Amino acid sequence: MTLTRRDVENIAHLARLQVTEEELPVYVDSLSRILEFVEQLGSSETDAVQPMAHPLEEQVQRLRPDEVTEADRRELYQRNAPVVEAGLYLVPKVIE
User: Domain count of the chain?
Assistant: First the structure.
């Protein structure tokens, strides 16, 4: 898949990135190559591949006990926040 200059401008706008005129051709080329590689990966036959829990065969993942190891410090941390309500941090609305 080859991206156009307009595609990259739209992506940059959505991501809130400032891309200069000099950078646009580089991004068009780089992002197009990335998408082509993803398409190539998508065309690989993976039906017969078994999922694995660990990338190295015969290895076992060490598990730790599921225990609480730290005290609850939420109230201490929220004292520094400008606005807190019902144990939640309140932030300004950024999406209209």
Answer: 1
Tell me the two tokens of residue 52: 């694995």
Whether 51 maps to a domain, the answer reads: no
Domain that holds residue 20: 5-42
pLDDT digits (tens, 9 = 90+) for 3-12: 999 999 999 9
Task: Evaluate whether 62 touches 37 at the Cβ level (below 8 Å).
Answer: no
pTM score of the predicted model: 0.50
Average predicted confidence (pLDDT) for the chain:
90
* Angle 70-72-76 from CA coordinates, rounded to 5°: 120
The CATH number given to whatever domain includes residue 12 is: 1.10.20
Q: Which residues contact 74 (CB under 8 A, 6 or more apart)?
A: 87
